[in-house]
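Task 17 of the worksheet. Students: predict the tertiary structure of the chain below and write it out as structure tokens. Keep your answer in the requested format; marks are given for formatting as well as content.
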Amino acid sequence: MKTDEISDDLGDWLHDHVFDEGSETAERSTRWVMWITAAMMVVEIVAGWLYNSMSLLADGWHMSSHALAIGLSAMAYVTARTYAKDPRFAFGTWKIEVLAGFASALFLVGVAVMMLIGSLERLISPQAIQYQEAIAVGVLGLVVNIVCAFILGQAHHHDDHHGAHGAHGAHGAHGHHDLNLKSAYLHVVADAFTSVLAIVALVGGWMYGWSWLDPVMGIVGAVLVALWAKNLLLETGKVLLDREMDHPVVQEIRDVVEADTQTRVSDLHVWRVGKKVYACAMSVVTRDASLTPQVLRERLGVHEEIIHCTIEIHQR
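Model answer:
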């Protein structure tokens, strides 16, 4: 066969490596929320200094971490889309989004430490607080957080709805949310909760003279940020390190391949290459002379979340 004929025939077997196309709705939503959050962050930090409220300052700095994290999420969507067809990314660019979530979690750890130190200082050396003004700003911050949560929640719902129609495998869309969008959404929800703590502290101080409540709530907010950062680090780190071999789909692959008594999996690697999709590489030992990689790919076709397979067969 001539070289050009081989090339033409090879074209039928070539495919791209865009395993996750991202979400236009999620990208647009995170961009909007980023600007809204950044604007409110400035208002809360300035108001916290002017009105001497540590809980309001803590909420403002907490919101700054969210502004950065959501900005990273928006940038990650753009970057992943821009380089989607770049051959240097062997398994696509989806993990750029996960990396953004990991980076925002690291930043959150630093913010939690700053919030804790600032609150302890105010607890040791209390200062006068202009409660009414601080409460007004805190309520405004809470309203903004609720609006942002609604915007991202709608995008999250759209993503799940789209995924439910696009994945009908054993797992479908369950448990495979957009980690980048989830990161932005949880940032906003966590910030809304911190805003509630700030308002409670300010009302308690205003009505009952509990000035100690303001820095205490700042400490509680710092702990919440640290816990959330830890969870995000674990979740994104798991994906970045390809720690997926305990996922149910791994055993399902083994069950499909080893459906007959003549075939066994001797080596198997499975890792995620998108929100709901996986790649796998396996070595198979068999006594079935008719077994080919194409036959195994057809068997694995029942699991639509397996979209890229590299199969090596050893005949015994």
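Marker's comment: Strands lie at 263-272, 278-286, 306-315. The chain is about 65% helix and 10% strand.
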